[in-house]
Each structure stands twice: as structure tokens, then as C-alpha cells.
Specification:
The protein is of the alpha+beta class. Helix content is 18%, strand content 26%. It has a seven-stranded antiparallel sheet. InterPro entries: DUF3558.
């Protein structure tokens, strides 16, 4: 775009010299790069009223993961009003079967949200039971609800009970 602006305005032209202006219109070529995330449902578009109704603070919304965009995923995170945990909602293309097949997830049990097939699972390395997740099918792949205990405060309840409450309440807003 900068090159187009320079061609049309004559930037970079030495003083005292005149450039020959042309009426040629330069049209940029279409981008050949594809943004794999553009087609994914963005959990940051969940209504603030729905987020608030589940016990999360909409003012704490953080897109991505710690400010990092992961290819193939749309992510949004909120802190709970109880303050001891955060909930991340991730939208990605992996199938529910692919989630079941991961060896870094353990304790996988069936869990449905409304009519959507899903699973509840734990992180394999989480010996203290600080985190719990639910994944459900959507047309583009899966949505994961990932509850993480805030280490600075510590676990003050059952992460799986909390993540089920949030997933059930936000389920009607999924695509």
C-alpha cells in the first residue's frame, strides 16, 4: 500500500526535478495467505450479560492466550468473580475424536451440553486437580471450556463442578 501511495503522490522525488505523472491505476494483488482463524467462531463475542450471569467478570476479558495468538484457535479468557480461577473458552478445528485421542488428557468421560456431544477431561500433568476442561462439538470442530486455578489464590472449590456450570450456561450461545 505504501508503494501505491508513493507512485500516486510522487514521494521520493528529488527536489527540482519533475516526475512524469501517469494516470495508471495500481491495484494490489489479492493476498495469497489464508488466515485459518478467520472462519472460527470467536468466543470473545459471547455476550457480556451471559458471561456475567455465569459468575465471570466481563471486564477481565483477555483475547488469545497471554496475548499470544495461536494458529488454528480463537481464545478468550475471563476471571471468575470468586477470583480463585479463570475460564478460557477455545474454538478450534480439532474433532471431538481428536480430543479423545490426546495422551495429555486423562480421566476422559462423556459429558453433553444440551444436545451437543462432549467430553470432560483433566490435564495429565495436573497431579493436584487444579484444572478441568470440557470439549463439545460445533460445526467447525470443537469448543473447549478450560478452567484454571489461579496459583496465587489456590483452589477453593471443585474445578470440574465449576467448569460444568459455565459450559452448561454458555452452551446455548455456541454456534
Amino acid at each position: 500500500m505504501l508503494a501505491i501511495a508513493c507512485v500516486s503522490t510522487g514521494c521520493g522525488e528529488p527536489e527540482g526535478e519533475t516526475a512524469t505523472k501517469t494516470s495508471e491505476v495500481v491495484t494490489p494483488a489479492p493476498s495469497t495467505s489464508v488466515n485459518p482463524d478467520a472462519e472460527l467462531w470467536d468466543p470473545c463475542h459471547l455476550p457480556d450479560s451471559a458471561i456475567s450471569a455465569t459468575g465471570l467478570d466481563p471486564k477481565t476479558e483477555v483475547p488469545d492466550v497471554a496475548g499470544v495468538d495461536f494458529d488454528g484457535w480463537q481464545v478468550c479468557t475471563w476471571q471468575s468473580n470468586a477470583e480463585w480461577y479463570s475460564l478460557g473458552v477455545l474454538s478450534g478445528t480439532p474433532t471431538l475424536q481428536a480430543v479423545r485421542a490426546r495422551d495429555d488428557f486423562v480421566g476422559i468421560t462423556d459429558y453433553s451440553i444440551g444436545t451437543r456431544a462432549g467430553v470432560q477431561f483433566l490435564d495429565a500433568g495436573d497431579d493436584k486437580g487444579l484444572n478441568c476442561s470440557i470439549a463439545v462439538e460445533i460445526p467447525q470442530g470443537t469448543v473447549m471450556f478450560y478452567l484454571t486455578t489461579r496459583y496465587s489464590i489456590g483452589k477453593q472449590g471443585d474445578p470440574c463442578t465449576e467448569v460444568r456450570q459455565h459450559a452448561d450456561a454458555l452452551g446455548p450461545y455456541l454456534p
